[in-house]
Write a structure and sequence with these properties.
There is one protein chain. By secondary structure, this protein is α/β, with parallel strands linked by helices. The protein has helices at residues 56-65, 83-86, 89-96, 126-129, 132-137, 215-226, 245-258, 271-281, and strands at residues 10-17, 34-41, 44-50, 75-77, 100-104, 112-114, 120-121, 140-144, 150-152, 155-157, 177-181, 184-187, 196-200, 203-208, 231-237, 262-266, 285-287, 293-295. It has one domain (10-294): Ribonuclease Z/Hydroxyacylglutathione hydrolase-like (Metallo-beta-lactamase, Chain A, 4-Layer Sandwich). The chain is built from eight helices and 18 strands. A seven-stranded mixed sheet has the order 8-5-4-3-2-1-18. Helix 1 (56-65) crosses helix 3 (89-96) and helix 7 runs parallel beside helix 8. The mean pLDDT is 97. It binds fe (ii) ion (2 copies). The site of one fe (ii) ion has 8 residues, from helix 2. One fe (ii) ion is lined by residues 82, 84-85, 209-210, 237, 267-268.
């Protein structure tokens, strides 16, 4: 079913956490993603915090440098459970210090692990990310949904990308991740990743955390939900760090077919994929770094 998502008038994305600090930059890098997404519509301004990095401190430091008061955050989206997207939650919620909805997938609290090079917990870190109840006590209102949700004119979450919705080359990608399910370790395809899309005057802007379901499948899902097939930009980590040359090439081809104009990526995309995007898209590829501000 296609939903009339409306249109946002203006969009500004502040990069608050990224694996790269940028050249000669005063901002702090860390492993992870956090974006402050400022949306303008009908004379209103709303601030969406998309992911919270591994640690709160560098995010709050970068916010201060950008003159962003954490109290002005209107809502939070957690793209998926991985620690590098959720670890800063407790510290940042303490600074937001008010009731805010937190949009995430119902499986955000799952117990998941990476097995290479050794067995390590990969989910929300209990001490830094906090428990469900601790976050509620600080004002967090969990909005856990597998389905897409329209948040405001132009802005909608993508919900879960089902197996059927994945494009061929993004299916069955093994990433040595496992989760506990009824007392058994089973492969984790990170079904809990929900993306965000914003319909702007220039077209759709699709934002992923690690884009574990595949950035092309997530972009297609945004088109399917909204019925808008003009894609302006893809933003976030694309998790191509361990992808082979074929998958990287197919991603480039799919972006070209979809008419993607701008690519803003970093985090888990990996140097080889970034170099390919830089070669194929020239100045329309921009590497993310802490403190970067994207105006759309
Ligand atoms: Fe990540
Ligand atoms: Fe991840």
């Amino acid at each position: 079913m296609v939903v009339d998502v409306g249109t946002a008038d203006k969009l500004r994305i502040y990069v608050l956490a990224e694996d790269y600090a940028g050249y000669n930059s005063p901002f702090l890098a860390q492993h992870g993603i956090s974006f402050l997404i400022e949306v303008k519509f009908n004379g209103n301004t709303r601030r969406i915090l998309f992911d919270v990095g591994s640690y709160a401190e560098p995010v709050l430091f970068n916010m201060e440098l950008l003159s962003i008061d954490p109290k002005t955050v209107d809502m939070i989206i957690l793209s998926h459970s991985h620690f590098d997207h959720t670890g800063g939650l407790l510290g940042i919620m303490k600074k937001i210090n008010k009731e805010v909805p937190i949009f995430a997938h119902p499986e955000i609290f799952k117990v998941s692990f990476a097995t290479e090079p050794e067995f390590t917990y990969a989910g929300i870190p209990p001490l830094r990310g906090g428990s469900k109840g601790e976050i509620e006590k600080l004002g967090g209102i969990w909005v856990l949904s597998r389905d897409p949700i329209r948040l405001m004119p132009g802005v909608f979450t993508l919900g879960e990308v089902s197996k059927e919705e994945k494009v061929g080359f993004e299916k069955n990608v093994t990433i040595s991740l496992y989760k506990l399910e009824k007392g058994r370790l089973v492969p984790d395809e990170v079904e809990d990743e929900i993306g965000l899309a914003i319909n702007t005057k220039k077209g759709l802007v699709v934002i992923g955390g690690c884009s574990h379901p595949g950035i092309v499948s997530m972009t297609r899902k945004a088109i399917k939900i909204s019925g808008i097939d003009q894609v302006y930009a893809v933003v976030g980590g694309f998790h191509l760090i361990s992808a082979d040359e074929e998958r990287i090439q197919k991603t480039v081809e799919a972006f070209k077919e979809l008419g993607v104009k701008k690519i803003y990526t970093g985090h888990c995309t990996g140097l080889r994929a970034e170099a390919t995007f830089a070669r194929e898209f020239g100045k329309n590829f921009e590497k993310l770094h802490s403190g970067k501000v994207i105006e759309i």
